[in-house]
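Hi support team,

I submitted a single chain yesterday and got back a structure, but I'm not sure I'm reading the token output correctly. Could someone confirm the output below corresponds to the sequence I sent? I've pasted both exactly as they appear in my results page.

Thanks,
R.
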Amino acid sequence: MYPDYVTSIAGLGVGIVVGLTGVGGGALMTPLLLLVFGVAPQTAVGTDLIFAAITKTVGAFSHNRRGMVDWTIVRRLLWGSIPASIATLLLLQTNTVSKVEDKLIIGALGVALVVTSFATLFKAALHDLGRKLRIRTPAAFKRMQPTLTVVAGALLGTMVTLTSIGAGALGAVMLTYLYPLRLTPAKLVGTDIAHAIPLAVVAGAGYFFMGSIDFALLGWLLLGSLPGVLIGTYFGSVVPDRLLRTMIAVVLMFVGVRLLS
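Hi R., thanks for writing in. Yes, this is the structure output for that exact sequence:
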């Protein structure tokens, strides 16, 4: 068993990486809690969801104050993600699923990490594809945007509730593809964060009622991660973003494959 301050150091490291690259903390934090600290899968996911809700709230206020949140897109995502999250929580509480819950969460986590790795590597390519489709068939593309956004929200709601991963990196990639002209890079980040908070709150509340949140662990993680995000943001312009993102994607792929195997 590691001392509590080691957990804070881990939180500091994750916070710095998130500040440098914007890659979702869940993709790094949940595997760390599972593989390094030996936290039970359900507790790791539940604790990380509350952790994400708290850390992203500060960023959301900042982005919204600067007008960098597209609330129409946020509402479309929530129409899909919140019902999907509630349905997933109800499924997790059934007796049939509870017997294989740890394996289900670990398997879903492995898939989420592999998908997030690909999303991190090919974000620019997906943006270019979405841009070309938007320009070539503007009427059809725009007509399908609301429905596709709700579907994307449902996928995110299921994945985030099962694994705590997806609302950040994968959500940003989906929005990059669906709104290649409407969302500037700053609005993309702000909109993605604004959607992630209510989703994390709903999913985290479900895990709270299942008794799967370690509040002591949460406190030590926040103690390290909050200053870590500030440090990472400060040095974000110095570190080569593409190289760091590639390295993180490789690590996520390796961990994802390990969990799946």
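A quick pointer for reading it: The radius of gyration is 18 Å. Let us know if anything else looks off.

Best,
Support desk
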